[in-house]
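Q: Here's a chain of 397 amino acids. Please give me its 3D structure as tokens.
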Amino acid sequence: MRYRRFGRTELQMPVFSCGGMRYQHGWGDLTMADIPAEAQATLENSIHHSLELGINHIETARGYGTSEMQLGEVLPKLPREKMIIQTKVGPSENPQEFLENFEKSMSFLQLDYVDLLAFHGINNQETLDWTIRKGGCLEIARQLQKDGRVRFLGFSTHGTTDVIVRANETGEFDYLNLHWYFVNELNWPAIQAATRNDMGVFIISPTDKGGMLQTPSEKMVELCAPLEPMQFNDLWCLNHPEIHTLSIGAAKPTDLDTHVASLEYYDCIEETITPIEKRVRAAMIETWGADWCENWHQGLPEYFDLAGEINALEILRLLTYAKPLDLIEWGKSRYNLLGNAGHWLPGQNTATLNEKQWLQLQSQIAKHPFAARIPAMLQEAHELLKGEEKQRLSQSE
């Protein structure tokens, strides 16, 4: 395993973290009597294997169903000082509700303290305000720090880049969890803001949200050889020193192994990934042209500034990567969440637009360099990616 300084926390963070969203048994708050022995064994074996590999950062959340409770059966039996434990609790308009949820997390985990506590889902200005305002959730968390129950504070986000940057620039947070990987470079300004503030940077779901690379398309397999597609994505992310750790959402122990095997190339990342990246980007350019691939997102309005709250940024991102790389199932999984995921994936897809709103949208993007192309591409995305409406796996995807 390799380790990186996790910003001003000074923690030596493994470049891979063991995410706790996939190996749990269920999404509700059950009792241990409801957990099959086989399911508990899968989780415990995943934790043991993670530690054997040097992945000593274990990450979970109050919103991950039975994850905290199941972890509470194994973590107290392990050397606490050798582990970095993170949980996440959603901010609330009522700070006492935040505190109650934190207490529930700790009772499930059966630990005296967590190293990292994240405000889970600072996805818009409202949730940021709930956290940082006078008398808000942050004040509760500061007291928890004073009481020795939390070491460092951060936040997890699916928000727009501007919200993330504002949160970073408050100076209140030691680290953040956010989305950024090969098929989603839009949050780079937020990572730069985190670096300026010496914050730890944790990448959420680079494999699944990063293209469903655990079940890659044949085209991606061919383009990324001799690496596995998720190994290419791992190394592409780690080639940026601003990134400190990538989450592996392991459903079983062996899910960790392919990622760790990529570290064979850790000392020669640049020369390993450069020819692969050239092939992948060439496939995209062949479909869309270099100008689109480099500049499509520049100056494109956010969903809240477009007719019908169409999330054009997300839709065009999905199309830009899904079509040339044959990541259609990934694109569908994201596209059909639009309109069904609240502030975790805000905005709508184009199924809801009427003729008047289409005309309004065209007016709103009239000054964009690709104004003439975008309406047709939005329609193409809908035809390619439409399907059954999706629901998130949990309230805290």
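Q: Can you summarize the key feature?
A: The chain has two domains: 3-267, 291-385.
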